[in-house]
C-alpha cells in the first residue's frame, strides 16, 4: 500500500471519529471498508497515529459534553456530575499498589460501605503487590 493511500485512510478515519459517524476504530473501518485489525495495529506501533486517534475521540467527547450541558435533562446532568465530582459516583475504586486486603476493609468500614465481613477461603493468602515500572511509569 502506498504512503499516499495510507494517509488517505488515516485522514478518513480521523474525520469519522471526530464526527457522529463512528465511535471507534472498528466502526470507522466498517464505514470505509478497511481492516479494523490494521487500524488497531497501526495504533499499537505508531505513537503519532495513536495520538491522533485519541485526540479525535477527545474532540468528539468534548462536543458531546457540551451538548449535555445545554440539555435540560436531569439524568444527563447527574451523569455529568458523576464524572466531574467523585462524591457523586456510585462506585468505590481501590488503588491496588502495595496494599493489603486488611487496609481495604479498614477503608470500607470508614466509608460505611462494608455491610458484611469478607469471607476468604481457608487457603487464601494475603499478599502485598509492589509497583513495577513500565516505560518509566510506576504501575
Keywords:
single chain; about 140 residues; mainly alpha; 2 domains; two-stranded antiparallel ribbon; 6 helices; about 60% helix; flat
Structure report:
The protein has 139 residues and is mainly α. The protein has two domains: 3-87, no CATH class; 92-115 and 124-132, no CATH class. It is 58% helix and 3% strand. It contains six helices and two strands; from the N terminus they run ααααααββ. It has helices spanning 3-18, 25-32, 36-45, 47-70, 74-84, 101-111, and strands at residues 133-134, 137-138. Strands 1-2 form a two-stranded antiparallel sheet. 6% of the residues are buried.
Radius of gyration: 22 Å
Q: Structural class of the helix and strand makeup?
A: mainly alpha
Helix content: 55-70%
Task: Report the portion of residues in β strands.
Answer: under 5%
Shape: flat
For the largest sheet, list the strands in their spatial order. Answer: 1-2
- State the distance separating the first and last CA atoms: 38 Å
Number of helices: 6
Oligomeric state of the chains in view: single chain
Round the mean pLDDT to the nearest integer and report it.
Answer: 79
Q: Return residue spans where pLDDT drops below 50 for at least 5 consecutive residues.
A: none
Q: Domain count, please report it.
A: 2
Please provide the count of β strands: 2
